[in-house]
Design brief:
Blueprint lengths: L6 E3 L3 E7 L4 H13 L4 E4 L5 H12 L4 E4 L2 E4 L11 E2 L4 H14 L3 E4 L2 H4 L4 H10 L2 E5 L2 E8 L7 E3 L5 H13 L4 E4 L7 H8 L3 E4 L4 E5 L7 E2 L4 H13 L4 E8 L6 H8 L3 E10 L2 E9 L7 E2 L1 H6 L4 H10 L3 E5 L11 H10 L5 E4 L2 E5 L16 H14 L2 E3 L12 H8 E2 L1
Parallel strand pairs: 2-15, 3-14, 6-7, 10-11, 18-19
Antiparallel strand pairs: 1-22, 2-23, 3-5, 4-5, 7-9, 8-9, 11-13, 12-13, 15-17, 16-17, 19-21, 20-21
Helix pairs in contact: 1-2, 1-3, 1-7, 2-3, 3-5, 3-6, 5-6, 8-11, 8-13, 11-12, 12-13
Bound molecules: shikimate-3-phosphate.
Length: about 425
């Protein structure tokens, strides 16, 4: 799906069953960990978006051997080596930050670059933590392009996280893994634990409790990976069904890892009707079929660990809050300013498009619930996939919304529009 022209999303309830693509976060990690081992790993349900392609191509450039087989990808890994060309991380912060950790651990010199959006995003926090590990890293005023010049000697293996970032935590774990060095990380705030789970699935001696992670042994026994459905992709449909009268859907095979269910917990606190069915474990990750019905919502407060567990879904919680009775306060979300776009500003534009007011706090927002009604104004997405899809969700219950362009959706969920159309009754 490539649509660089305006696109209008229509109102209508959601009914029936659907599936979402493989999880983007798990897919990046699956590729990187598979590339580390020497025996082939088959990955099923890899996320088909552009971000994960950026990781795959970076690994190929470093000498990993990957083959497609049916819908699966088989990664043979082995010895990685320097790439003469810079690694193009495109729009993907996960690729840039985690691949930097991998290169730091493997001691493979590399240059990293990305698109205009990625070039604006902070790289200094991950660089600073990897410098403590011993890596020599040069950023461009704290941003991309970034050059990794080698890890002459490991300086420390005990880290205190400077932010609640799962990407930085994972960069440090990958550095330790490639350098065959046990690692201890404290200061985690229950950010997504997919790297920890995959390492455990591969037989590593690793423990974590939402605060501290200890990777004791780096010897791995790679196994095939079936990637769980993307919790953040499911989130669009969960929110749309919740706010749109007469909706009732089931999302099959969706990841329900507790470090990713902040949106669901926030919506349940607002009165949503969401139920997990047939919960099971797939390649070390909890997966369920998620049943959602329309519900009348009331305001809540979102902050602390819940905000970390919902970090990519805060725009959707704001959309839900627009339909809730009362004012919903969300704090601890300052990091949204440095995502694929400034997502606090994006929330403000989304809500303005349906006549809902929002107050901005130093580290948060307050959304005043009401009766959202599309104003007909074209919404600028700033080429952010999550803003484009959030606009489609809002349109389900508030009336037609036109966005400037929809091609950013390819970053994580190329089949989003047909999937929405398959369950929507306009
Ligand atoms: C991700 C972590 C989060 C999230 C991003 C994916 C990951 O970023 O916003 O979409 O896969 O680890 P931070 O690590 O910057 O919080």
């Amino acid at each position: 799906m490539t649509q660089t022209s305006a696109r209008t999303f229509v109102p209508g309830s959601l009914r029936g069953e659907l599936a979402v693509p493989g999880d983007k976060s798990i897919s990046h990690r699956a590729l990187m960990l598979a590339a580390h081992g020497t025996s082939p790993v088959r990955i099923t349900n890899l996320n088909p978006g552009r971000d994960v392609r950026a990781t795959l191509e970076a690994l190929l450039a470093l000498g990993a051997v990957c083959a497609t087989d049916g819908g699966d990808i088989v990664v043979s890994g082995g010895r990685l080596r320097e790439s003469p060309a810079p690694l193009d991380c495109m729009n993907s912060g996960s690729t840039a930050r985690m691949m930097l950790g991998l290169c730091a651990g493997a001691n493979i010199r590399a240059r990293f670059d990305g698109d205009d959006s990625l070039r604006k995003r902070p790289m200094e926090p991950v660089a600073a933590q990897l410098r403590a590990f011993g890596a020599k890293i040069r950023t461009t005023d704290g941003r991309m392009p970034v050059e990794f010049l080698g890890t002459p000697e490991i300086q420390t293996t005990h880290f205190i996280l400077v932010s609640a970032s799962a990407q930085i935590k994972s960069a440090l774990l990958l550095a330790g893994l490639y350098a065959a060095t046990p690692i201890v990380i404290s200061g985690d705030r229950a950010s997504r634990d997919h790297t920890e789970r995959l390492l455990q699935y591969f037989g590593a001696d690793i423990s974590w409790d939402g605060k501290t992670i200890a990777l004791k042994s780096t010897a791995l026994t790679p196994r095939d990976i079936d990637v769980a459905g993307d919790a953040s992709a499911a989130a669009f449909f969960i929110t749309a069904a919740t706010i749109t009268p007469e909706s009732a859907i089931v999302i099959r095979n969706a990841g329900v890892n507790p470090t990713r269910t902040g949106l669901i917990d926030g919506l349940l606190a607002m009165g949503a009707a969401i139920e997990f069915r047939n919960t099971r474990t797939v390649s070390g990750e909890p997966v369920a079929d998620i049943a959602v019905r329309h519900a009348e919502l009331h305001a809540t407060t979102i902050g602390g660990e819940l905000a970390v567990r919902a970090i990519d879904e805060i725009p959707l919680l704001a959309v839900a809050a627009a339909f809730a009775q009362g004012s919903t306060k969300m704090t601890g979300i300052g990091d949204l300013r440095t995502k694929e776009s400034d997502r606090i500003a994006a929330i403000e534009r989304l809500l303005a498009a349906v006549g809902i007011a929002m107050e901005t706090l130093p580290n948060g927002i307050v959304v005043r619930g009401g009766a959202p009604q599309a104003t007909g104004r074209v919404l600028e997405t700033e080429h952010d996939h999550r803003t484009a899809m959030a606009a489609a969700v809002l349109a389900c219950a508030a009336g037609p919304i036109t966005i400037d362009r929809a091609d950013s959706i390819d970053v994580s969920f190329p089949a989003f529009i047909p999937t929405l159309q398959s369950v929507q009754r306009p």
